[in-house]
């Protein structure tokens, strides 16, 4: 059983860093048990189950499966050990207070593009609850059992080949409309090239992948501290309510965050992680039909 330890110069919080990877409370690839994080992933060398815990400024990880060694080699990146926040010294009072409350927030990067991209596609234009259910159903049925002593029900995400071969009616049963299903299959067909992609522009060149989806992917796969999820139903209102006391649109949000470059997404995460964010997220991004009833 390979293991690894990563020491930090200050407090470490894997929960804060890895929280964006969890796709809802029932995510079969992400579980928290007694304060310990379990993560199932698919590395180029094979599947892996990782058990991540921490004490003060040290994170420890045990891993099982063919991809265990590769996962542990990338553990510092996963936990944001090389997250560069140099030059980030906010003067806006609310942002400065958020930074003071959670100075140990780190932005991690998984390096797994397809694993970040497909759930982001599923989340396009629908409520979180609906998207999380679809992800749970598809991964539970088409993913592989997580290796090692993983909590019951944990699964490794499907391979690109499996995503390509999921029948259209299975997407329908999961309430994933044909447009999103086509985008998922198209991206899976380009999986090898996608894993070499390192830019938001490259992701947006894919049919069905827009600014929001590309940003969500860049945040998780590469820890992009400046990739703002423009087009999110809630985000601009949250930023406006928190910093100005009223709702704003995307254009106003980008103008407001412009002085924070290249840390605009870091600001968003700080506001959310600090508990200072206002305008609780509720409702769908867009009302959608119940495809199962059609």
UniProtKB/TrEMBL annotation:
Gene Ontology CC: cytoplasm; protein-DNA complex
Record's keyword terms, sorted: DNA damage, DNA repair
Lineage: superkingdom: Bacteria
InterPro entries the UniProt entry points to: Alkylbase_DNA_Glycosylase/TA, DNA_glycosylase, HhH-GPD_domain
Keyword DNA damage: yes
PANTHER family to which the protein is assigned, alphabetical: DNA GLYCOSYLASE (PTHR43003:SF6), DNA-3-METHYLADENINE GLYCOSYLASE (PTHR43003)
Stated name of the protein: DNA-3-methyladenine glycosylase II
Native species: Mycolicibacterium fluoranthenivorans
